[in-house]
Design goal:
The complex is a heterodimer. Chain A is α+β, with helices and mostly antiparallel strands. Chain A contains 9 helices and 20 strands. Chain B has a two-stranded antiparallel ribbon with strand order 1-2. In chain B, helix 5 crosses helix 7 and helix 14 packs across helix 17. Classes of the chains: A alpha+beta, B mainly alpha. Chains A and B meet through strand 1, strand 2 and strand 10 of A and helix 19 and helix 20 of B.
C-alpha cells in the first residue's frame, strides 16, 4: 500500500505535509484507499489523523502534497466540489430543522423535485431505522439516533466517499457497540468508500478493512486488522493496538535469541542484530501461557509467582513475577476456566511459557 | 516509513496549497471588503479627520500641537478636563455603591417586590440624559418646587447637579452588570464557607466580593465612560460648570471654533479609550465561576436584612420614579410650580420641529435598528466564521466605537460629510447620516452580542453545508439566523431604544428638516420652553416603553417558536432589562 499510489484508487494521498506554525502535524503522508474499502485512521490524540481527514475534505489546506480522488487531483478544489459526505464528532445537526429537513438539506440545492427529495429522505431514514422520527427535532432524539441522522444526512446526496470523524466517541459504551455493527453493515450494503478517524483501537479492529496507525504526524503501519494486531511493525503499534508486555533484552550470540538477565529467550527472529545490541521484546498477555508449576524448564519456560489477580469477567489477568532477572513484571490473560483448573491463588507458583513465535523483537530505542 | 527526524518544520513550505477561487469565495471576500469599507468610511476615516483637524488652525494651516498648547494653557478651557474627571469619578463611585446594594437585594435576599423594583430601576434607559437633569431643576432649581416652598436654594446648577443627574442616568447600566455578576454564583461555595465556620462578614469578604470583582470593575468603567462622555445632563444642569463634552459643543456651536472642538475631542478620547482598554485587560483574566455543575443559590429569609433592603430599594426606586413623575407632572400643568391647573397645551408644540421631530426620531430609530442589527450580525459573522487575515483588524475596529464619545463622532461626521467638494456631502442633512451615526455609535455592544451568539454555534455547520455543496450563505440563512433569532431581536431593541434617546451623537448633524426629538428637547429648553421640553421628553419615554413592550411580545413569540427545538437552552442576552 505504501509507495506511489495506483491512479485508480478511490482516495490517494501523495506526500501530504501540514504544519501549524512550528508544530508539524503531518510529515509527508502517502497512502491509497481502494474503492469500497472501510479504512480507519487510528492513533492517539495529536497524531494528525483528524487533520489528515480534514485535508481530504478540503476543510484544511495542506502545505505540501496532493489529494486525488478516483484519479482526479482535487488538491485545488474547495470542499463543495469534492463529492463526499461527512459526519463530525459533534454531529453538527441543524437544531432548528427536523430530522427530515436535516436529511434533505444537501438535496435541496440540487436540481431535484420535491417528490424526489421526499422519496430519497424516506429511503435514507428507512436505511438507518428512523422513519418514525422524521418530524422530530434533533434535540428530541437520543445520542445514538442523532448519530444515525447525521449518517443519513451525509449519505443522502449519494457521495462517492464517506468521512467519519470520531463518530462514535460521544456515545456511551453500549450504544457504541451496537452502532459499530450498524455503521459497518450499512457501509457494506452501500459499498461506499469510507474513511473513519478514531483513537479507539477496538473500534478500528472491529470495523475496518484496513487500519492506518498514525503517530506524531506519520504512518507507523498500514494493514488489515489481524496483521496490525498480530504483527505490529513498531513498538508504538504494539503498545497502542491491544495490550502488550515489554521486556528489555540484548541480542545474544545466537541469531533469533535474546538475553534477558541470566537466561536466553528465543523470539520470532527476522531481525538483523549484532551481539549485545539492546532489544525490546514484546508479548501479548493472552500469549503468555500458564501451566501448573513444576516440570522441566524448557525453551522459554520458567517459574513465576502470582503477585496479583484481577477478575475481568470473561478472563482473568494475572500479575506475574518470573524467577528471572529482568522479567519481574509480566501480565497474563487466562480464561477463567483455565485459571480455576490451575488451582492456585495470589502468591502461588506456576510455570509460564513465552512461545517464541509470539515473542516479537524490536531494536530498543524506537520510541514506543 | 519515513524517519521521524527527516521532516522538520523548516523542511515544509510555509505556503498552503491554494484552493481554486469559487463563487462562494467571491461572496465571502465581497462581504469582508464591504464590512471593512463601512468601518473605514464611517468610523476610522472620520476619526482620523478629527485628529488631523486638531493639528490645523481655523484657516486650514498646519500648526502642529499649538491647539493643544492653547487648550492646556487657557485656564477657562483647561478646567473642563479636571471638571470632567471630578464629575465622572464621583458619579462612578456613588452609582456603583448604590447599584451594588440594589443588585444585592435583587439577587441575594428574599426581599419582597423585587420585580417592581427591577422595572423601576430600568426606567432611565428610556429617557435622554437631559431628563434627569430637568427633574432635578424642577425640584431644586431656581424655580424648583422645593426651592419655592422652603425658600432655600441648594444650588443645584453645577457639579452637584451633574453628578446627581449622572447617578440617575447611569444607575440601570451599573445595575444590569452587577445583577449578572451577583446572579452567577455557586451555592456550594457558600455551603463550604458555612461548614468551615465562616460568619456572614467573612463569607461576604472571602466568597461574595471575590466572585464579583470583575463585575464591579466592569460597572465602574461603564459608568465612568457614560458620565465623562455624556452631554445632555451637563448641558441642562451644568450652568457655568464646564465639562469636556459641553466644551466641545460651546467651541463648535457657540464660537464656530472647529479646530478647538477637535482638540478637546481628541483629549476626551483619551480617558474613554484608556478606560475601555483597562476593562478589557481585566476581563481577560476572568475565568468561569459558574460551571455546568454549579447549583444556584437559594437565599434564606433574613427578616432584618430583607426589611432594611426593602426600605433602601423603596427609597431609590421612589426617587427614580419620582424623577419621571415630576417631568410628567410638569408637562401636564399650566405653569410649574406656580399654577397646577391641568392642561395639555404643552403638547401642542410650536417650536423646534414638534411632532415632525418625534416622527423623525421614530423613523431614525427604526432604521438604526434594522440597519444596525443587519450590520453587526453580518459583520460578526464575517469576523467569526469567515476566518481571513482581515478578522483580527476588523474585530479591533469593531471594538473602537464603544470608547468614542458621541460628541466626537458627531464632530467627526461634520468634518467628513460637510467638507467642501466631497462626494460624501450628499449624505449631509439627511436622515441617513443620523442613522449611520447611531449605528456606529452603538455598534460595539451589538457586535459583541452577535459574536457571542455565533461563537456558541457548532463550528462545523458551514462545513456540513460545504460537504454537500450547499453555499455558506444558504446555511447562514437557513440555520445560523434562525438559531440566533433571540439575540437578533435583543440587538435590534438595543439599537432602537438608544437611537430614540441619544443626543450627543446627533446634536451636531441634525439639520433643518431632520430634527430629532431629543435634540428638540434640548432646543426647547434652551429657548426657555421648559414645559414643552418636558412634554417632548414624556413622548420619547412613552415611545420607548411602547416599543419595549412590543419587543417583549416579539421575544416571547420567538422563544415559544424556538422552544420546539431547544432543550430549555440558555436565555438570550437581553440588552435592556
Amino acid at each position: 500500500m505504501s509507495g506511489p499510489a495506483p491512479a485508480a484508487a478511490a482516495v490517494a494521498l501523495d506526500g501530504i505535509a501540514k504544519k501549524f506554525g512550528a508544530f508539524v502535524a503531518l510529515r509527508g503522508i502517502t497512502l491509497a484507499v481502494e474503492a469500497g474499502d472501510f479504512v480507519c485512521f487510528l492513533g492517539p490524540s495529536g497524531c494528525g489523523k483528524t487533520t489528515l481527514l480534514r485535508i481530504i475534505a478540503g476543510l484544511e489546506r495542506q502545505n505540501a502534497g496532493a489529494v486525488r480522488m478516483a484519479g482526479r487531483d482535487v488538491s485545488a478544489l474547495p470542499p463543495a466540489e469534492r463529492n463526499y459526505g461527512i459526519v463530525f464528532q459533534s454531529y453538527a445537526l441543524f437544531p432548528n430543522l427536523t430530522v427530515g429537513r436535516n436529511v434533505a438539506y444537501g438535496l435541496e440545492t440540487r436540481r431535484m423535485g420535491g417528490a424526489a427529495i421526499g422519496q430519497r429522505v424516506d429511503e435514507l431514514l428507512t436505511l438507518v431505522g428512523l422513519t418514525r422520527h422524521k418530524d422530530k427535532y434533533p434535540a428530541q432524539l437520543s445520542g445514538g439516533e442523532q448519530q444515525r441522522v447525521a449518517l443519513a444526512r451525509a449519505l443522502a446526496p449519494s457521495p462517492s466517499l464517506l468521512l467519519l470523524d470520531e463518530p462514535l466517541s460521544a456515545l456511551d459504551a453500549r450504544v457504541r457497540q451496537s452502532l459499530r455493527h450498524e455503521v459497518r453493515a450499512l457501509q457494506r450494503r452501500l459499498g461506499v468508500t469510507t474513511i473513519m478517524v478514531t483513537h479507539d483501537q477496538e473500534e478500528a479492529l472491529t470495523m475496518a478493512d484496513r487500519i492506518v496507525v498514525m503517530n506524531a504526524g506519520q504512518i507507523e503501519q498500514m494493514g488489515v486488522p489481524k496483521e496490525v494486531y498480530r504483527r505490529p511493525s513498531t513498538p508504538f503499534v504494539a503498545r497502542f493496538v491491544g495490550q502488550m508486555n515489554f521486556i528489555a533484552a540484548q541480542a545474544s550470540g545466537r541469531s533469533g535469541w535474546a538475553r534477558v538477565g541470566t537466561i536466553e529467550l528465543r523470539h520470532q527472529g527476522g531481525l538483523a542484530t549484532t551481539q549485545g545490541q539492546a532489544l525490546t521484546l514484546a508479548i501479548r498477555p493472552e500469549e503468555v501461557l500458564v501451566e501448573p508449576a513444576g516440570g522441566a524448564d524448557g525453551e522459554n519456560r520458567m517459574l513465576a509467582r502470582i503477585s496479583a489477580i484481577q477478575f475481568l469477567g470473561s478472563f482473568t489477568r494475572l500479575q506475574l513475577e518470573a524467577r528471572a532477572d529482568g522479567l519481574e513484571s509480566l501480565e497474563s490473560d487466562v480464561a477463567d476456566s483455565t485459571f480455576t483448573a490451575l488451582g492456585v491463588g495470589e502468591g502461588g507458583e506456576i510455570s509460564i511459557v513465552l512461545q517464541p513465535d509470539a515473542l516479537r523483537a524490536f531494536p530498543a530505542g524506537a520510541a514506543p | 516509513m519515513i524517519p521521524r527526524a527527516a521532516v522538520t518544520a523548516g523542511a515544509i513550505s510555509d505556503r498552503l496549497v491554494r484552493h481554486r477561487l469559487g463563487r462562494e469565495d467571491v461572496v465571502r471576500w465581497a462581504l469582508v471588503l464591504a464590512f471593512a469599507a463601512i468601518l473605514y468610511l464611517f468610523l476610522l476615516y472620520p476619526l482620523a479627520s478629527v485628529l488631523w483637524r486638531s493639528l490645523l488652525d481655523n484657516s486650514g494651516r498646519f500648526i502642529g500641537l499649538a491647539n493643544y498648547a492653547r487648550y492646556f494653557g487657557t485656564p477657562v478651557i483647561a478646567a473642563s478636563i479636571t471638571n470632567s474627571l471630578l464629575v465622572s469619578v464621583a458619579s462612578m463611585l456613588i452609582t456603583v455603591a448604590l447599584a451594588f446594594g440594589f443588585a444585592y437585594a435583587l439577587t441575594r435576599t428574599r426581599m419582597a417586590l423585587k420585580g417592581m423594583f427591577r422595572l423601576a430601576a430600568m426606567l432611565p434607559l428610556f429617557a435622554p440624559s437631559l431628563v434627569q437633569a430637568f427633574a432635578l431643576i424642577y425640584v431644586f432649581g431656581n424655580n424648583g418646587i422645593v426651592t419655592r416652598i422652603t425658600g432655600f436654594n441648594v444650588g443645584i446648577y453645577g457639579a452637584k447637579g451633574i453628578v446627581l443627574a449622572e447617578v440617575f442616568y447611569c444607575f440601570p447600566h451599573a445595575l444590569l452588570i452587577l445583577v449578572a455578576a451577583l446572579g452567577a454564583t455557586d451555592a456550594r461555595l457558600y455551603d463550604a464557607a458555612r461548614t468551615l465556620g465562616a460568619g456572614p462578614v467573612k463569607t461576604f469578604l472571602t466568597v461574595t466580593l471575590p466572585g464579583i470583582k470583575y463585575g464591579l470593575v466592569s460597572a465602574c468603567f461603564v459608568v465612568f465612560t457614560l458620565a465623562i462622555t455624556d452631554f445632555g445632563a451637563p448641558k441642562a444642569i451644568g450652568g457655568k460648570f464646564s465639562v469636556m463634552a459641553t466644551e466641545i459643543y460651546n467651541q463648535v456651536s457657540g464660537q464656530q471654533n472647529f479646530t478647538m472642538g477637535a482638540t478637546v475631542s481628541v483629549v476626551l478620547l483619551v480617558p474613554a479609550v484608556l478606560a475601555f482598554m483597562v476593562d478589557r485587560l481585566v476581563q481577560r483574566r476572568q475565568y468561569a465561576l459558574v460551571t455546568a455543575s454549579s447549583t444556584p443559590l437559594q437565599p434564606e429569609p433574613r427578616p432584618l436584612t430583607d426589611g432594611a433592603l426593602l426600605v433602601y430599594c423603596g427609597l431609590l426606586a421612589g426617587f427614580i420614579v419620582g424623577v419621571f413623575g415630576v417631568v410628567l407632572a410638569s408637562s401636564l400643568v399650566q405653569r410649574w410650580p406656580y399654577n397646577f391647573a391641568p392642561t395639555l397645551k404643552h403638547y401642542a408644540f410650536d417650536t423646534a420641529g414638534g411632532y415632525q421631530a418625534l416622527w423623525n426620531s421614530i423613523q431614525v430609530a427604526a432604521l438604526t435598528s434594522a440597519v444596525g442589527t443587519a450590520l453587526v450580525f453580518v459583520g460578526g459573522y464575517v469576523v467569526e466564521k469567515c476566518r481571513t487575515v482581515a478578522s483580527g483588524p476588523l474585530y479591533l475596529a469593531s471594538m473602537l466605537p464603544v470608547s468614542v464619545p458621541g460628541m466626537v463622532l458627531g464632530l467627526a461626521y461634520i468634518f467628513t460629510f460637510n467638507a467642501p467638494g466631497s462626494p460624501l456631502n450628499a449624505l449631509y442633512a439627511t436622515l441617513a447620516i443620523l442613522v449611520i451615526s447611531n449605528v456606529i455609535h452603538y455598534f460595539t455592544v451589538g457586535f459583541l452580542t452577535a459574536t457571542t451568539a455565533l461563537k456558541q454555534m457548532d463550528a462545523e455547520f458551514e462545513n456540513v453545508g460545504a460537504s454537500m455543496g450547499v453555499p455558506f450563505y444558504r446555511t447562514f440563512w437557513r440555520v445560523t439566523v434562525p438559531i440566533a433569532l433571540p439575540s437578533i431581536v435583543a440587538i435590534s431593541m438595543y439599537f432602537f431604544l438608544n437611537a430614540m434617546v441619544t443626543l450627543s451623537a446627533v446634536v451636531f448633524i441634525v439639520a433643518p428638516g431632520t430634527e430629532l426629538a431629543a435634540v428638540a428637547v434640548l432646543l426647547m429648553d434652551d429657548a426657555g420652553d421648559t414645559a414643552q421640553a418636558a412634554a417632548m421628553s414624556v413622548l420619547i419615554i412613552a415611545t420607548g416603553l411602547a416599543v419595549r413592550c412590543l419587543y417583549w411580545l416579539l421575544l416571547r413569540g420567538v422563544t415559544r417558536r424556538t422552544q420546539a427545538w431547544t432543550q430549555g437552552g440558555a436565555a438570550p442576552a437581553d440588552l435592556s432589562s
